[in-house]
Amino acid sequence: MSAIVIDGLSVSADGRRLECDVRPRGDVRRFFTGKPFAVTYDRPIADVPDGVLAIPALANVCPVAWASGADVYVDEVDATFARALEDVADVLDSMYDFVEGGELYARRTIDPKPDTRGESALLFTGGVDSTCSYVRHRDEEPILASIRGWTITPDPDDDRDWNDLRERVSSFADDRGLETAFLETNALEALDHAMLLAHYRHRVDGSWYSSVGHGLGLLGLCAPMAYARGVEDLYVAATHWDGVDLEWGSCPEIDDRVRWAGTRCHHDGYGLTRQERVDVIADYVEQAAPTLELQTCNRRMDGNCGECEKCYRTAVGLRLSGLDPTAHGYPFSHEEYDELRRAMERGRWELGEDERYMWADIRDRVRETEPTSAAERRFFEWLIAANLEELVSAAESPLSHRLLRAGARNAPASVYNVAYPTWKSIRSGLERVSR
Q1: Which of left, alpha, beta for 268 (phi over 0: left; psi -120 to 50: alpha)?
Q2: First and final CA of the chain: distance in angstroms?
Q3: What domain of life (predicted)?
Q4: pLDDT at residue 229 is higher than 80
Q5: CA-based nearest residue to 152, from 298, 348, 311
Q6: Cα(345)–Cα(390) distance, integer angstroms
C-alpha cells in the first residue's frame, strides 16, 4: 500500500525557513527524491501554527498522492485547508482519469483565528497575466508575491535570474508604494519532477506541474506568509480563459477552492482572453504608466530577447492593442513579421495546444485591425489563412524525445535517474541548434 508521511516540521532559528521530511512508501516512492521539503520566506513565520505551516508541503505532495492512490499522513492540519483539499481532489478526479484518490489523515485538525487585516496579495512576475491582475486590483494595493522554485530553479546557476526578477518586481512595487513577498522553495527537487514528467507526459498537455499541480502548489506555498501578514484575498492570474478547452493545473475550479484560516484564493481574469488582458494593460499605460515594461521572455529574466515565440507573441499583442512594443520591453519592428512567419512555418519552436489558443486569439483581433505596413499586411493575411493545428503539430517534440519519455515511464527509478540526464542533454543540444 502506498503512503506518504509528512513529519519533522521545523522553522529555522531566524524564523524564515520552513522544512519538513517527506517519507513515501510503496510505488509512490519513485516520485520523490528523498530531499526534505523546504520553503524560505523573507519575513518571519515562527508564530504561524503548525497546521498552517504544513500547507506548503501538503499542497505539493497531495496531487502526487492522489495520482498514485496513496494516503497522506501529517501531525496537524488547518481544518479549512483540509476541506479545500477534498474539493480540489474532486476537481482533479473529474479532469484526469489517472487520479485514483487517497485520504488525508491528521492527528489533529485546528481552526485558528488569524489576525486578518484586510490585506490582499497577488502572485506576480511582471508578465501579461499578472500585470493585468495588478491593474484590475490596484485599488487594493496588493502585496506582490514572487516564487523561486518553478520557472526559476533553486540551482545556483539561476541566481542571476532570481536576482533580476526580484529587482524588477521590487522596482515595480516601489514605484507604486506596494509591499513585496519573495519565497524560495525546493518543491520540484523534493518531488522527482523528471519522473513525474516521464510517467504522465503522455496524459497531459505540458509538464506534470503545469497540467496538474501548480495552482494548488503555488498558492499553498504562500499560506504561512499570508497567515503571518493578515492576507484575506490571494490572487493568481489566469493563464487561459473561458472557451479554452485544456486541462490545466491552475483554473477557476481549482484555485477558487483553495483556502485556509483567514485566506481565500481567487483565479483572476478568467473572463478575459489574453489579448483582452493586453487591452487592460494598454489602457493603464495610457492613463498612468507610459513607461511600463513587461517581462515574458522564455530565455532570460533581465529583459526580453525579442526572438523567442513568447516575445514575438507578446509584441504582436501589444501592437494590436495600440502600443509600440519597443516602448514596453520588446525589440520589434515590422520587418520582423516575415521572420516570425518563417519561424512558425518551419516549426522552430516546440508549441502545444496552449499556444494554438493564444495565436487563435491574436488572429481574431487581426481580423479587426487595419495593418499599417506591407510587412504587417502580409503577416495578417497569412495568419488569417494559416492552419494553426497543422503548425502546432509540426512543432511537436521529435519522435526520439517521445520514445525516450515513453521508455522512462516504465523504467525502475534507478534506471531512469541515469537515463533522464542523457535525454535532457540531447534535448538541450537540439534546442540550442534550433535557436
Answers
A1: beta
A2: 47
A3: Archaea
A4: yes
A5: 298
A6: 9
Q: Which amino acid is at 405?
A: R
Q: Which three cell numbers stand for residue 313?
A: 507573441
Where do runs of H (alpha helix) occur along 139-206?
159-176, 187-190, 193-200
Spatial separation of the C-alpha atoms in residues 113 and 130, rounded to whole Å: 30
Tell me, rounded to whole angstroms, the distance of Cα 295 from its chain centroid: 15
The x, y and z cell numbers of residue 20, run together, are 519538513
Residue 81 near residue 263, CB atoms below 8 Å: no
Report pLDDT digits (tens) over 122-159. 999 999 999 999 999 999 999 999 999 998 999 999 99
pLDDT digits (tens, 9 = 90+) for 245-286: 988 999 999 999 999 999 999 999 999 999 999 999 999 999
Range of weakest confidence among 108-112, 149-153, 220-224: 149-153
Torsion angle, CA of 275/126/182/232, rounded to 10 degrees?
-40
How is residue 204 written as a grid cell?
497531459
The Cα diameter of the chain in Å comes to 69
Distance of CA 248 to the CA centre of its chain: 10
Write down the pLDDT at residue 122: 98
Provide the β-strand partners of residue 246: none
Question: Which of these, 150, 148, 149, 179, lies nearest to 165 by C-alpha position?
Answer: 148
69: nearest Cα among 98, 48, 42:
98
DSSP state of 135: H
- Rounded to 10°, the helix 336-345/374-385 angle is 20
CA torsion angle 25 12 232 76 (round to 10): 40
2-29 per-position pLDDT tens digit: 999 999 999 999 999 999 999 999 999 9
> What pTM was computed for the model?
0.90
For 357, the enclosing helix (H) or strand (E) is: helix 353-366
